[in-house]
């Protein structure tokens, strides 16, 4: 009876998750192998684990790219471990190369479907009505680039899932004054962040910031003692769940627990001359300033424009952009949402409001940080190391920025509804739906 009741009360949510699963799985079937950024190099890792039954050291010959001289095996491997596990399960029935690739990709489908679940949970906490809640979920889960990331072997689906779980845990922590349950959610969220990719690590700093903000605004000494216990509980669980990877890296790579120095040294040794890190051309060593790199032409493109368009959707190896009208509508929708958010933030004096004794302003500051961290990390690496103006590197900002946009449009809708009794939010709903339907048809017609 309880299951029937849960299903009955959440039919729309269950249908939404099922639609997401079918969409993500369909894309993983449609995209040909290695028609996505570095999928060949990435697939080598789960295939190595599947073939050898162990984790790679990173410097195995079959894992080193002959052009770049690098290996992805020095980066966190959790997503690839799941891919290898799924490959092993499928191998009991077939060892077809094509089926093994699809099973490796299925890890991304799983993580992205779980993301849709937590996005809905977040939306229920933030929005009082189902219309803006599902609009927010649609903006996130139907973003063409996010859907594309589920279709090939890579870490991005795990990255975004880890941010969804972490943000949901933040909301629980604020609501429950850091209950043990909320701390468990946070521990798993941060552990997934640690084992996903480095562009998600800003969420660790944001979580620490949120903790100290919460601690500061508690008046009770008993609660403060409880908060300290929770802090050490989260630290302990994160170390237990994710620490093994960094200890292993440190032991294998002479103390390089992140693997970045070792990866760089490997590339210096094995890359083709023009791709060696010491000789590789970057905006920094080309004499550009950071602002020049961001806003002016470099290497055939403009960083901010290329990053934005590929955040919305640019498929293949950045060779299959969407039509310009989709990008223009995206700019319009996002601009209306963000401007509306700022207007209603001041109009409703949200900066004076509190949520569970914590000023809303400082909570929003943490969410703003979670947007800025991946953005500036992407700028830094493009400027100093490898010019890669790709939206997938700023994907950790997806959920918080869509929250701001959705909230702004929701408030605008409420304002207009009071004046005209019309829900304009239906017009905005068209954008995520049309963009993903168009993208799916475009990709299907190109590859099938």
TrEMBL record:
Membrane association type: Multi-pass membrane protein
Keyword annotations for this protein, in alphabetical order, are: Cell membrane, Glycosyltransferase, Membrane, Transferase, Transmembrane, Transmembrane helix
Taxonomic superkingdom:
Bacteria
Coiled coil (UniProt feature): none
Q: Which residue intervals define the domain Glycosyltransferase RgtA/B/C/D-like in the entry?
A: 92-245
Q: Which residues cross the membrane?
A: 14-33, 73-95, 102-122, 134-153, 158-180, 200-218, 230-247, 325-346, 358-381, 393-412, 424-447
Q: Which GO terms describe its biological process?
A: lipopolysaccharide biosynthetic process
- Keyword Transferase among UniProt keywords: yes
Q: Name one GO cellular component term.
A: plasma membrane
This protein is called Glycosyltransferase RgtA/B/C/D-like domain-containing protein
Natural source organism: Eubacterium callanderi
């Amino acid at each position: 009876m309880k299951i029937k009741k849960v299903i009955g009360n959440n039919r729309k949510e269950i249908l939404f998750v099922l639609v997401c699963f079918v969409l993500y799985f369909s894309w993983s079937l449609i995209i040909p192998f290695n028609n996505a950024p570095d999928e060949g190099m990435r697939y080598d890792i789960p295939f190595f684990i599947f073939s050898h039954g162990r984790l790679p050291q990173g410097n195995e010959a079959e894992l080193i790219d002959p052009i770049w001289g690098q290996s992805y095996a020095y980066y966190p491997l959790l997503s690839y471990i799941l891919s290898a596990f799924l490959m092993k399960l499928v191998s009991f029935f077939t060892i077809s190369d094509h089926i093994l690739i699809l099973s490796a990709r299925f890890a991304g489908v799983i993580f992205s479907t779980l993301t849709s679940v937590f996005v809905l949970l977040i939306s229920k906490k933030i929005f009082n009505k189902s219309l803006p809640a599902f609009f927010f979920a649609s903006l996130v889960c139907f973003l063409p680039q996010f859907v594309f990331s589920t279709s090939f072997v890579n870490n991005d689906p795990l990255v975004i899932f880890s941010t969804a779980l972490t943000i949901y845990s933040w909301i629980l922590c604020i609501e429950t004054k850091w209950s043990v349950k909320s701390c468990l959610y946070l521990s798993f969220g941060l552990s997934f962040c640690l084992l996903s990719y480095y562009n998600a690590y800003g969420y660790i700093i944001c979580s620490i910031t949120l903790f100290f903000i919460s601690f500061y605004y508690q008046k009770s000494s008993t609660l403060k003692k409880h908060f300290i216990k929770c802090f050490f509980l989260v630290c302990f669980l994160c170390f237990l769940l994710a620490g093994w990877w960094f200890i292993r890296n440190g032991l294998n790579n002479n103390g390089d627990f992140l693997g970045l120095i070792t990866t760089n040294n490997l590339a210096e040794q094995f890359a083709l001359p023009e791709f060696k890190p010491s000789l590789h051309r970057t905006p920094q060593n080309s004499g550009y300033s950071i602002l020049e790199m961001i806003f002016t032409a470099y290497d055939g493109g403009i960083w901010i424009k290329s990053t934005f368009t590929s955040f919305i959707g640019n498929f293949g190896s950045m060779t299959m952009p969407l039509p310009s009208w989709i990008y223009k509508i995206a700019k319009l929708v996002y601009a209306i949402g963000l401007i509306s958010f700022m207007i209603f933030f001041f109009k409703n004096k949200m900066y004076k409001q509190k949520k569970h004794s914590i000023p809303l302003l400082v909570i929003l500051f943490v969410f703003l940080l979670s947007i800025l961290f991946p953005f500036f990390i992407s700028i830094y690496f493009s400027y100093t190391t490898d010019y890669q103006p790709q939206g997938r590197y700023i994907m950790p900002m997806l959920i918080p920025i869509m929250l701001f946009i959705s909230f702004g449009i929701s408030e605008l809708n409420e304002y207009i509804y009071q004046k005209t009794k019309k829900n304009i939010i239906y017009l905005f709903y068209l954008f995520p739906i049309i963009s993903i339907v168009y993208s799916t048809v475009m990709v299907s017609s190109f590859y099938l």
